[in-house]
Amino acid sequence: MNYYICETCGVQHDLSSTEPKECKICTEERQYVSLNGQSWTTLEQLVQFKKYTNEFTSELEGLHSIKTTPSFGIGQNSYLIQNKDFNVLWDCITYIDEETISMVRELGGIQAIALSHPHYYSTQVEWAEAFNAPIYIHEDDKEWVTRPSKRIIFWTGDTLKLHDGIVLHRIGGHFKGATILEWNSSTDSVLLVGDIVRVVADRQWVTFMYSYPNFIPLPANTVKRMAQQLNSIQFNKLFDAFHRVISTDAQTRVQLSAKRYIAALEGELFET
Q1: Can you give the pLDDT at residue 185?
Q2: Is residue 103 pLDDT above 80, yes or no?
Q3: Sign of CA pseudo-dihedral 68, 69, 72, 75
Q4: Mind listing the pLDDT tens digit for each residue in 20-78?
Q5: Category of 11 on φ-ψ map: left (φ > 0), alpha (ψ -120 to 50) or beta
Q6: Per the CB 3.0–4.6 Å rule, which of 39, 86, 133, 171 could disulfide with 7?
Q7: CA 254 → CA 1, 208, 221, distances in Å?
Q8: Domain presence at residue 237
Q9: Model's pTM, two decimal places?
Q10: What domain range includes position 96?
Q11: What is the number of domains present in the chain?
């Protein structure tokens, strides 16, 4: 019996005696199945390969990114927030080993895990069990959980305060339960967004998509609603899931980006 991991998206599935026929995450139109076909591995195999390591980078005081090298699955990084003796792991990566666990413990461990959306569920239960931590997922994305666990808390509504200075906001868009995290530290006001909001190549702008790999945009009305919700949150810095950062005046840049996106969809930005 194994907890099989899809090699394309990196999401771990429930205990099974044989490899699943398909990955529920990848066969949905927001993701894709590899051109080489569906393939599976396990966390034990990944660790035994001794091919992967997790790199910890200090992004701000109290904020560390964690990224697997070489890249595995979708290739996102997660973030460890050190917040008043209450550390939060924001989004997950698939690879976790004893060296990673030791490093996280040196940084104060993990008291809660919060997820932006299903593409980054990866081995969330492995992380939760390693640190005896609850997992917070919005109930609107409950159907996408591929490895159930009693550690998962399905929260409701549009906001959830995890601790002083840390609030989850469901803004939808990429998924119905798509969530972002607001962190007000002693020195910064930060928004961690996964790819619910994605910083583009020009770091002064962001975008909003239903599917990034398949280039399916979100409707203008959805982005208008998301922009209204984002405008009610005070933040100066924004970190997405791929080490792209808007380091100053991020709230203004998000609003300008939403206006540009909507104008493009409505045929008001350019003629071609």
Answers
A1: 85
A2: yes
A3: positive
A4: 999 999 999 999 999 999 999 999 999 999 999 999 999 999 999 999 999 999 999 99
A5: beta
A6: 39
A7: 46, 10, 16
A8: yes
A9: 0.96
A10: 2-265
A11: 1
Q: Any idea what the Cα angle at residue 69 is, between residues 64 and 73, rounded to 5°?
A: 100
Q: What is the CATH number of the domain that holds 111?
A: 3.60.15.10
Q: Is 272 among the domain residues? A: no
End-to-end CA distance of the chain: 56
Q: Is residue 233 part of a domain?
A: yes
Instruction: List Cβ<8 Å contacts ≥24 apart for 200-204.
Output: 200/244, 203/244, 203/245, 203/246, 204/246, 204/253
Indicate the pLDDT class of residue 272, thresholds 50, 70 and 90.
Answer: confident
Asked whether the beta carbons of 10 and 122 are under 8 A apart, the reply is yes
The packing angle between helices 98-106 and 124-131, to 10°, is 50
Residue the block writes with tokens 């409505």: 266
